[in-house]
Design brief:
The complex is a heterodimer of chains A (117) and B (106).
Chain A (H helix, E strand, L loop, with lengths): L4 E3 L2 E4 L5 E6 L6 E7 L5 E8 L2 E4 L8 E4 L6 E5 L8 E8 L11 E2 L3 E5 L1
Parallel strand pairs in A: 2-11
Antiparallel strand pairs in A: 1-3, 3-8, 4-5, 4-9, 5-6, 7-8, 9-10, 9-11
Chain B lengths: L2 E3 L4 E5 L4 E3 L2 E3 L5 E7 L6 E5 L10 E2 L10 E3 L8 E8 L3 E3 L3 E6 L1
Classes of the chains: A mainly beta (117), B mainly beta (106).
C-alpha cells in the first residue's frame, strides 16, 4: 500500500511568487494534517482536515497560506505571495481516525522542501 | 503553555553503549506522548507511544508525570539506531520537540 505522498519533493521560487504543494493521503484516511519545519526550529502544526472540512487551522501563519482539500481526497497548500521566511520543509500526514481513537496514528509523507530566494 | 523540550541536539555514542534521549514536556492536562524517528532518507515514523507501554527496537520510554519527562532509553545502542528522534506531545494536535540526532559509532 502506498504511503502518504507529497509533490514536489523540492521547490525553489523567488520571493513574491506563488507555490502550490500537494499531498495525497493514505487511501481511506479521513484525517489530513499539514506541518512545517523552518530552519533550526521544531516541526509545527499548520492545520487539520477531516474529509474536506478544516477541523483546526490555528497553526496557519497568515493569510498568505491557503489549504484546500476538495472532495476529501488530496490536499493542496498554496503560498501566495511567498516570502523568505516561508522556506522550510512542509510535511503532510494522514490518519484513519481522529484524535483520541485507537487508529489515530499519523503517517507522514516525505515532505516538500521549499526554498524562497 | 504546551511545549516539548529536547535539550540535546546531538548525542553520540559507541555501539553497545546505553542511550538516553531526554524529553521534558509542559502541559496542564493529561498528556499523551510519543517518540517519532526519522532515519536517513526516510520519512518520519512513529517509534512508540507511552500509552502502549511497549518496547520497540529495544527502545522504551516511561512517562514520569512528577518530573514531566518522557526520556527514551535503550540499553545497547546499534549502528542502525542512528537517526533523528523527536519527542512529541499529543493534545488535539501534535507538538514536536526540536529533535535529537543520535549517532552510533561502530
Amino acid at each position: 500500500e502506498a504511503g502518504v505522498t507529497q509533490f514536489p519533493s523540492h521547490s525553489v521560487i523567488e520571493k513574491g511568487q506563488t507555490v502550490t504543494l500537494r499531498c495525497d493521503p493514505i487511501s481511506g484516511h479521513d484525517n489530513l494534517y499539514w506541518y512545517r519545519r523552518v530552519m533550526g526550529k521544531e516541526i509545527k502544526f499548520l492545520l487539520h482536515f477531516v474529509k474536506e472540512s478544516k477541523q483546526d487551522e490555528s497553526g496557519m501563519p497568515n493569510n498568505r497560506f491557503l489549504a484546500e482539500r476538495t472532495g476529501g481526497t488530496y490536499s493542496t497548500l498554496k503560498v501566495q505571495p511567498a516570502e523568505l521566511e516561508d522556506s522550510g520543509v512542509y510535511f503532510c500526514a494522514s490518519s484513519q481516525d481522529g484524535w483520541g481513537t485507537s487508529t489515530d496514528t499519523q503517517y507522514f509523507g516525505p515532505g516538500t522542501r521549499l526554498t524562497v530566494l | 503553555a504546551q511545549r516539548v523540550t529536547q535539550p540535546e541536539k546531538l548525542l553520540s555514542v559507541f555501539k553497545g553503549a546505553p542511550v538516553e534521549l531526554k524529553c521534558n514536556y509542559s502541559y496542564s492536562g493529561s498528556p499523551e506522548l510519543f517518540w517519532y524517528v526519522q532515519y536517513s532518507r526516510q520519512r518520519l515514523q512513529l517509534l512508540l507511544r507511552h500509552i502502549s507501554r511497549e518496547s520497540i527496537k529495544g527502545f522504551t520510554a516511561d512517562l514520569n508525570k512528577g518530573e514531566t519527562s518522557f526520556h527514551l532509553k535503550k540499553p545497547f545502542a546499534q549502528e542502525e539506531d542512528s537517526a533523528m528522534y523527536y519527542c512529541v506531545l499529543g493534545t488535539d494536535k501534535l507538538i514536536f520537540g526540536t529533535g535529537t540526532r543520535l549517532q552510533v559509532f561502530p
